[in-house]
Amino acid sequence: MDQDQADELFAAFGPVRVKRMFGGHGLYADGVMFGLVADDEIFLKAGPSNAPDFDAEGLGPFAYDTKTGRHVMTSYRRAPERALDDPDEMAAWARRSLAAAKAGKTPKPRSEKRPRKNAAE
Questions:
Q1: Residue 118 forms part of a structural domain
Q2: Number of domains in the chain
Q3: Which of 70, 77, 86, 116 fits as disulfide partner to 54, beta carbons 3.0 to 4.6 Å?
Q4: Looking at the DSSP assignment, which residues form a beta bridge with residue 26?
């Protein structure tokens, strides 16, 4: 997926940035990755708030095999086919996925600052 395709598909959602990653593309809004494109399929972030929507539609997760043979299931789920032709439908799914992605972000722990040693000491 290129930027022009994303702009068209997510027109009703708002600005989406497409970034290349691992042979696919990440989809970002508000600086948060809420979707990915792999093998020409779109997957959206699922979390406790929207996983039931994906389950109700039978939309499976993005999964891959590592070089060591381990099978990894991600929290990204296939976007519904009908949303690929309907920017308003895609916007609704994208909003819920962005909310799930934001809710799942945990802030990095702040390290405690140690007092600086005075150079004159």
A1: no
A2: 1
A3: 77
A4: 19, 36
For residues 4 and 21, give the distance between their C-alpha atoms in angstroms, rounded to a whole number: 18
| Rounded distance between C-alpha atoms, residue 61 and residue 79, angstroms | 10
- For residue 110, what pLDDT band results from cuts at 50, 70 and 90? low
pLDDT digits (tens, 9 = 90+) for 9-68: 999 999 999 999 878 999 999 999 999 999 889 999 999 999 999 999 999 999 988 899
Helical H segments across the chain, by residue range: 3-9, 51-56, 87-104
Q: Is residue 61 part of a domain?
A: yes
3-state SS class at 35? strand
State the residue range of the domain holding 24.
3-104
What's the angle, vertex CA 72, arms to CA 95 and CA 94, rounded to 5? Answer: 5
Cα–Cα dist 58/60, whole Å = 6
- Report, in angstroms and rounded to the nearest whole number, the Rg of the chain calculated over CA atoms: 18
Domain contains 95: yes
d(CA 38, CA 120) in angstroms, rounded, equals 57
CATH code at position 54: 3.30.1460.30
